[in-house]
Amino acid sequence: MSATFRYDRPKNLEIVKSPKLSVAVVIACRDGQSKLDLLLASLSVQSYPQRLISVYIVDDGSSKKLKLPAIKPAKCKIIYFKNNDKSWGKTQAVNHAIKALKQDVIWCIDADMVLHPDHLAQMMKWHHESQDYLVLGWKRFVAEWPYNPTSLVRELNLGNFHKLHQSSEGKESWESLVKATNNLRSVTLESFRALVGATFSIHRKNWQSLDGYNPLFKTGEDTELGWRVLMAGMRMVPEDKAYSWHLGISTVEQNTNTVITHNQPLFANYIPALTYLRNKSDLQWQVPENEVLIDCRKMSFETFKQVINQFLITNQSQFRLLGDWKALNRRYSVINDDDKELRAISRFVQSDTRFALVNLASQQTLSINQILELIQSSAVPYLYYVEGNPDSRITYKSLKRKLIKSKNGLEGLVDAQDQRAFILYTPALNRARNTPGDCYQNLQNQWGICWAEVGTFDFTKKLSFTNIFPMLALGLRSFTQIRRPRQVTKLIKRTFLVLKNSRSY
User: Fold this and answer.
1) Structural domain tally of the chain?
2) Suppose 428 and one of 21, 54, 269, 447 were both cysteines; which one would form an S-S bond, judging by CB atoms 3.0 to 4.6 Å apart?
3) How far apart are CA 227 and CA 429, in angstroms?
4) Do 340 and 424 sit in the same domain of this protein?
5) Are residues 95 and 184 in the same domain?
6) Per-residue confidence (pLDDT) for residue 255, from 0 to 100
């Protein structure tokens, strides 16, 4: 993994003159032979060396089996994926195909694309620079395509890719996201949306570490994968020189409401950033927003309740409790129980599946790196650690606000008894873990760390520009629309809603 700071990356990176990395091109296709033929034709004239390219078309149950056309890349084969009631669809077909591949880089593309001859070369320059990139191609949608494979290859060889279509459309929401984040150099939790599955490349080892697509998703699988890519600390690159034409409007665009209704329940479970899907619900989610590691060995039962109650305000947390739990199996005196606090904690949470007990010897001290090793980060964005009997002034949502504002990888507090409480940003921790060397030092170098004494930390919530701008915009927009007195009441209610949402945990 790269040792770069946060999401920095080189500017004006050039195409590699003597590339060495091999590429497996994976195309999931069900029917659509004519569009597939055009895609394969454009792949046959890629400037990236053909000796390094292997193309795999995964036929996911076409009504008429797909076949290889005359114009195609040198190394090209069809994998016929056997569908059954438990295994079908693009995600499982692609996962199945990639498991057997050995190439350095995986390039997933839709079967209805036409690619610029330098498309792959523009993407691969990033993979030669570092292994931790996921590279996104740039596409425009076209309604008609008056060419066949032969004429397409001729035009591409003449350098006429951009002349193939006089009119086209982009996806405004995607392009706006990319622009607003400085081409994904200023990444936020919303940036997972940038991963669109039409054309993206990723190092095979990273695909394996992510465990590929989530097979539960029959559509929207790229969005969910984007969340895990973000949590892994990888860098996403929108390569605006990797040009392509998307033949026709996507199925999602044609059936937006149906697809949204289908996807929302799974998105709610697996993507914590989609808070609007979780609001007003007390359900437990597959991927919560917070993982809280609590060292209970010297903690009182009352303090424990005070700590967890801050997180239980919303049903967005899972807990791992450190303690000498095995010691509780011994015979004990009710009147004189040395483990009474630990025992009370254990019994209090025994029926709640959000709490897991992790055994730790009572006298074992924990260095910061040992604590980092105990944290089980995956797709949960915020990771907390609390030990002992922390200062009662501490509010953990204040730590979270500080982390979001500072963009550091860790924000921590130390009290007069040298007890620690901190919050970690999962992408930062995973980047640090996947980089050789000392994990804590990597975290410092790659993302930034800040510690403060409890007495110097400001736990009050001040109105920041982040709070003020939505309120001003709301007020100005609503004020111009007031026509009747009762609309003033509506304005007040809407302003209150903005304030209420800004206080969410």
Assistant:
1) 3
2) 447
3) 15
4) yes
5) yes
6) 81
Q: Which domain holds residue 186?
A: 23-251
Tokens representing 65 are 């089996």
Tokens of 362: 């009572």
Q: What is the pLDDT of residue 479?
A: 55
Rounded to an integer, what distance in angstroms lies between the CA atom of residue 221 and that of residue 215? 8
For residue range 49-98, what is the model confidence (pLDDT) as tens digits? Answer: 999 999 999 999 999 999 999 999 999 999 999 988 888 999 999 999 99
For 466, residues 6+ apart whose C-beta sits below 8 A from its C-beta are: 502
Q: Is residue 262 part of a domain?
A: no
| Residues 19 and 52: beta-carbon distance below 8 Å | yes
Residue 1 lies in a domain: no
Domain end point (choices 201, 225, 251): 251
Query: In this predicted structure, what is the pLDDT of residue 353?
Result: 95
Residue-averaged pLDDT of the chain: 91
pLDDT score, position 256: 85
Strands of 92-187, DSSP E: 105-110, 113-115, 133-142
Q: Angle CA(145)–CA(151)–CA(154) in degrees, nearest 5?
A: 125
Of 400, 428, 409, nearest to 311 (Cα)?
400
Residues 50 and 185 in one domain: yes
pLDDT for residue 485 is more than 60: no
